[in-house]
Each structure stands twice: as structure tokens, then as C-alpha cells.
From TrEMBL, chain A:
Keyword Cell division listed: no
Listed Pfam families: Fer2_2, Fer2_3
CDD domains, alphabetized: fer2
Enzyme class of the recorded protein, top EC level: oxidoreductase
Name of this protein: succinate dehydrogenase
EC number: 1.3.5.1
Keywords, comma-separated and alphabetical: 2Fe-2S, Iron, Iron-sulfur, Metal-binding, Oxidoreductase
SUPFAM superfamilies in the cross-refs: 2Fe-2S ferredoxin-like, CO dehydrogenase ISP C-domain like
Automatic annotation (TrEMBL), chain B:
Domain spans labelled Aldehyde oxidase/xanthine dehydrogenase a/b hammerhead: 33-144
SUPFAM superfamilies, per the entry: CO dehydrogenase molybdoprotein N-domain-like, Molybdenum cofactor-binding domain
PANTHER family for the chain: ALDEHYDE OXIDASE 1-RELATED (PTHR11908:SF132), XANTHINE DEHYDROGENASE (PTHR11908)
Keyword entries, A-Z: Molybdenum, Oxidoreductase
Chain ranges passing through the membrane: none
Organism: Chelatococcus asaccharovorans
GO MF annotation: an example: iron ion binding
InterPro entries membership: Ald_Oxase/Xan_DH_a/b, Ald_Oxase/Xan_DH_a/b_sf, Ald_Oxase/xanthine_DH-like, AldOxase/xan_DH_MoCoBD1, AldOxase/xan_DH_Mopterin-bd_sf
Name the record gives this protein: Aldehyde oxidase/xanthine dehydrogenase-like protein
Amino acid sequence: MAKVAIRFLLNGSEKAEFVESGTTLLDVLREKLADFSPKGGCLQGTCGACSVLVDGEIRLACLTLAETCEGCTIETAGGLAKDGVLHPLQIAFADGFATQCGFCTGGMIVASKALLDRNPAPSREDVIEAISGNVCRCTGYEPIIGAVLAAARANSTNKA
Amino acid sequence: MELRKTYFADERRDDLKEIGQSRPRSDAFGHVTARTAFFADRTFPGTLHLKMVRSPHHHARIRAIDTSEAERHPGVVRVLTAKDVPHNLYTVLSLIQVGPEDEHVLAEEKVRWKGEAVVAVLAETPRAAFEGVAKVRIDYEPLPAVLDMEAALAPGAPLVNERHGGNYYHYDSGSSRKVRLGDVEDGFRQADHILEQTYASAPIEHAPTETTGCIVVPEGNERFTCYTNTQAMFFTLDNASIILQMPGHKLHMVGGTVGGGFGGKVDVIVEPIAILGSKLTGRPVSFIYGREEEMQISSPRAAERIVLKDGVTRDGRIVARQVHCYVDAGAYSRHSPYGTQKGAAHFPGPYTIPNVSIDSFCVYTNRTPSSAMRGFGVTIGDFALEVQMDKLARLIGMDPIEFRLINAYRDGDLKAHRQPTEGAALIECMQEASRVTNWPIADRFFELSSRTRRD
């Protein structure tokens, strides 16, 4: 099968790979670039565990063809902490007991970051809508919603 | 959070300081940075992908299997059938004397549920493995199936699993796990009211976000490392060792964080066949359920049907409780004989009843094998028992909490299975629940104690 060259920025560093046409972004991230932070929970776009940001927009890596990401900026949960400093969402999730098994957590935090990036002061309903594509089967939705709202409050306090 | 220190004050140690304190989870940092390693978060060059050919029938005889076209398919490396499995028969709990072995790793002669594994295809890519699966030809002779427990127990029902000789598990107590205390018929004669009700539940799937799977890596010297998300590491090691007829020291099982289990990852289904595939090809092998397999193939919580017959007096004492519990194991035992037995011990619930008769049946049907899930064997029983308690209270016009307080077990009471009650706190829990919810119960019920012997 034909291979195509792709280049993109992954969590701030340049990546270039030859991939078979039709390869998903999830497979490229996990199998070629060893970024295991997006998870494959369903491989059919229903669980949200593979959520990543492509040019700031939330995307399901399992349904995104890698070749459509040429020249894009990609952010994953694994790249959110900078120089060992946690993102306010990461602090809020840890402090608020918003993790259980941890499998959905990366995708949840990415979906929440997409929300806070465009809406720094979301309502509870905004948060529910933002994570509505992410399944937590340990059913810790309430602490997750609380953590996102806490992170938004922490952000606004820091800026004030 | 408020700690009520008045309860069991003489037994309380006051140097315990953790309750009421918030402590960070030990795994929170790994989770929020998405660095926690799950079994699939690793890659090995040359890994083969295993996909399963599954039965499209609930019950059928296998006339012939033709794998020749699949074996020739580009990318397919190896195709496995029953004859490749050294000891192709197992029961997860055989090591704790729950037998007989009743399930094939890959089906032989017959399939007994829709989804049963028949042929394993190992290929260079998932796509080639799926294509290989589509090219396996199996000639089936469909057989009559039983999909309902009553039908399975009816005279003349098709036999689901020949290894049990009947459509129920044989306990040493016979066709059911039996518990007897007092004389239940005498108890019914003493009762002012008798209430018989049937409660039923459907199978429930755990649906973990991370699907069941493992990755096996050959380490040379006939030794294998198996990265798995099993919840039952030692069942997995022991059963893989028996199925593969390999000593345990050849099998290095590596567990870790499980992406949601809820009891759904204790059945030892993926590891033995993946290790065999790795042994026969000399390559790493990945066998990970797709979402559809997780939902349709992995064992659910068993469907149950529970018939409760209670005799109660006008003043609120339950004097007799008869239980007939039917647990749908599906086509194979897995953990269901154990769950059914656990249920038998758990009935009559946390109540002291002088006359009890319990029969719990583990029933075989041509449905997906059921197994462990969060309190399996007792959870559905508790639903039935507590709904029944509310109905009994209504029947005699009594407050449901007062009714439960009258019947609650106390220290020293003999349970139906002959164990004396120790450390009971049900009365105190209900007293406190009544207090904090302002549920009106008569003052005399606040005088009761789990430590005071019943009159």
C-alpha cells in the first residue's frame, strides 16, 4: 500500500513520518511516536478516550486519518504538563478525585481544555456538553464536572 | 463529615485519625498526566494480531472447518483450531475444586452459544486478520437451543453441556445449593400473612472503557511474557499453565492498572490462546477485544430469577422465608457455580428468621456465559429481598424501617447457614439513617441494639 509523508507539530515538537494511506492518527501517535496518552477504547468514535486537539479543535484520533493532519498542530494529554508543571485542569482533577481507573482521564482533560480555551468561565451545562462525548464507565462524572469548574475558577483567580 | 462516637463507644479506638481526612490517590498524578501505563501502552516490532472466528449459532454441531483459504490470505501467518491447543478444556475455578472442566478454548465438535470462539487467525495487521477470519469456512448443523432457564429445566429440554449431564450444576447437595434452618412449612403455619413474589433480572455488561486484552512476547528458552489487564493474575497463570501444559515458571504474567474491570476481566479468556499463538509463531501476539466483542462476547452478570415466599406475623416478625433462586450461567460454568453458592449463603438477608429454606440453582442455557460482576450472586438477591421487605411492611401496615429493625440480625443470632452473627451494626445504621433523614420511627426502636440478645 502506498505510503505518504506527513509532518505535524506534536506537543510543540516537529514530527515527520511515512505512514500507509488510511492510517489513523491514533495509530501514528501510539505505534510510531510512542505517545500512549490517547487510548483506544472503542475505535469507532463513541468513547472519547482518544480525544486530541488538532489546531485547537477537539478530534477523535481513532476516526481521524493521519494524512489529514499534515502541517497541523496537535496537542495530547501527555503534552499538557510543561516542564513538570501541571495544567490547572490536571491539578483540579487530582485534587477533586476526578480520576478512578484513569483510562478516560486523558481524553476528559483534553475535552475540558478545548472548552476552557474558548470559554474560560463555563457554566455547569457548558461542562456537561463539553464532556458529553467522553465515556467514564467508573461513573465519576460529578467529580469530573466539579474539577473542570474548579480549574476554570482557579484560572480566573490567577489572572485577577 | 460527622463521626458519631456514641455507637459502640466501649469498642472504639480513638487513636484512628484517617477517617474524615482527605488523602490524594496514589495513582492520581499518573492518571492526570496520562502517564499511567495500561497493558496496551507498549509496542513490539513484528507483533501479530489475533482475531477470532466466532459461532453465528446459539447451538450447533461443527461438521467441518476449512481454514485453507484463510491460511493462503496475504498477511495471515497462522490459523489455530482446537487440535492446536494442548489441553483444550478448562474451568476457571477448577483449581479451587469447582469442576468439572466444561469449556473449550477453541470449540470442538459443537458450539453452545452465539459468539463462541472456534478458530483463531494470526496476521501481520488487524486488517489482514479480519480478512482471514472472513475466509474461514465452517459447516454447522444447527441444533435446538434453550435460551431461558425455565425451558432449560423443563423435562426433555435440549442438553446444553454434556459435561454436566443436565442443565444445572451438580452441587454435593444435589441439583441446587441448599440451606435449611428450622421447619419452613411449620413457619408458614404460624404466619398471619404469606407473600410469594417473583423477581427477575437481565444480564448486565460491565462495559469497561478499556477492552479485555493481552500482548504476549516470546523471551526465548520457551519463556513468554504476557502483558494483560486481567483482574485475576493467579487464575490466569495457573489456567494458562494447564491449558498450554507448560510449567508456571515459563509464563511471566505482567499486570498493572486495569482500565475498568468491575469483575469482567477475571475469566482467563484471551491469555492462553495468545500465548499459544506466540509459541507457535515465535512472534509477539496482541489479542485485544474490539468494542463489539467486549459488549457481546465478554461474560455479563448473570440473569437471575428469584422466587421469595415469606410468612409474616401481624406484629412484624418474619417467621418463615423460602427462596428459589435461578442463576443463568449461560453455556459454561466460568464463575457462576461459585456465585450461585454465594447467593445461597447470602439469603435470607441480614435478618434473623427462624425457619428458612433456600435452593439456589446454577442453570445452563445456550446464552453467553455469565460470570463475575460486582457482588455477583448477592446483588440481585439484595434487590429482591429489600423490595420484598417493603412489600411485607405494606402488607401488615408497618413502617418499613421499623419492620426491618424488628427483624434485623443481632450479635449471637444463628444465621441460616449455621454461622453465628458477629459484629452486627445494621440496627445502629438504620437508627442513624432515620435520625439524619428525620424518618419518623417510634422511640422504642432507638432503644434496640445489635449487642442485646433477642427475647
